[in-house]
Amino acid sequence: MAKKLVQGKEVIVNASELKKGDLVVCVAGDTIPSDGEVVEGAATVDESAITGESAPVIRESGGDRSAVTGGTRVISDRIVIKITAEPGNTFLDRMIEMVEGAKRQKTPNEIALTILLASLTFIFLLVVVTLVPFLKYSQAPVSIPILTSLTICLIPTTIGGLLSAIGIAGIDRLVQHNVIATSGRAVEASGDIDVLLLDKTGTITLGNRMATEFIAAPGIDHYRLVDAAQLASLADETPEGRSIVILAKEKYGLRGREVLDTRAKFIPFSAKTRMSGVDFFSADGSCCERKIRKGAMDAIEAYLKEMGGSLPQKVKEIVENVAKNGGTPLVVVEGKDVLGVIELKDIVKGGLESALQG
């Protein structure tokens, strides 16, 4: 289903009824119904179904980040999309068509064996045919059943059966090294492999980034960083947000506080601000007793500049080191104080590391 804009009003229609040029509205939690271009607003979009990358991307109107793909999911905010693909001609439709129309190619060994069998068959048929005049010249008895039996014995039909046996033996050898082969071509290719490269996201990992470490800024108490990070994530329903709360509980003994605190106003993640957090009002209702934010380094840096603060060079170095090690850094601040960095990482599936080493 899709929310189509008709004369400024949202009308629920089937996604299959959308045509090129239609305008549809997508909010957090919606699946984008078709390929299109963002013409209004900005949002974070989960494109893991298409690209396999767990990190959400920002899609906004204008510029080179406006294109969206049908089947992806909006995580935050609201966007208006102009459909750019006709029904049955979306990216997913073309990909499915390519898969359905694909034909298995023969392996090099199969091609070579086919040529060998054809050549030997032609030679043996030629031998049998030329054998008839020789037998007649020597006045030896010639009968059709004998020539037929000779032809059957000479044609190399059994060689074709060897390929299956070779393939089974190769697959068995791969299984002994914890590798599952789905075709003979894969078995042949594995013999030439020197380096194995894997698409880590969703292939060898769980597909969601998880909090693995809290790194406090110089001079900041570690407990204060963990406490602020957990408070800023209590209302965050994303896997990353939940993992921050869980890590604070399991590693540092901090239990989750009451989310519905009347003095707490949670700030949801936005594609525009690229931050989330929480504001705590004082007892008399004035703002704000505590202002906690977490987000990308450049977004937090801009937030601090607005408040008259700055991001310390040491924290920038921590962010750079986390990124170099393949992690995703989130900076945590309270007011103008930079508390530290949360390290998010893709978690390798259990048992996979030992299986690859074996």
From TrEMBL:
KW Transmembrane (keyword) present: yes
Transmembrane intervals: 111-134, 146-171
GO cellular component terms given for this protein: membrane
Molecular function via GO: ATP binding; ATP hydrolysis activity; metal ion binding; P-type potassium transmembrane transporter activity
Keyword Transport: yes
Superkingdom assignment: Bacteria
Domain P-type ATPase A, residue spans: 2-100
Subcellular location: Membrane
Pfam family, one: E1-E2_ATPase
Keywords from the UniProt entry: ATP-binding, Cell membrane, Ion transport, Magnesium, Membrane, Metal-binding, Nucleotide-binding, Phosphoprotein, Potassium, Potassium transport, Translocase, Transmembrane, Transmembrane helix, Transport
InterPro entries listed in its UniProt record: ATPase_P-typ_cyto_dom_N, ATPase_P-typ_P_site, ATPase_P-typ_TM_dom_sf, ATPase_P-typ_transduc_dom_A_sf, ATPase_P-type_domA, P-type_ATPase_bsu_IA, P_typ_ATPase
Protein name, UniProt field: K+-transporting ATPase B subunit
Origin species: Methylacidiphilum kamchatkense Kam1
Top-level taxonomy: Bacteria, Pseudomonadati, Verrucomicrobiota, Methylacidiphilae, Methylacidiphilales
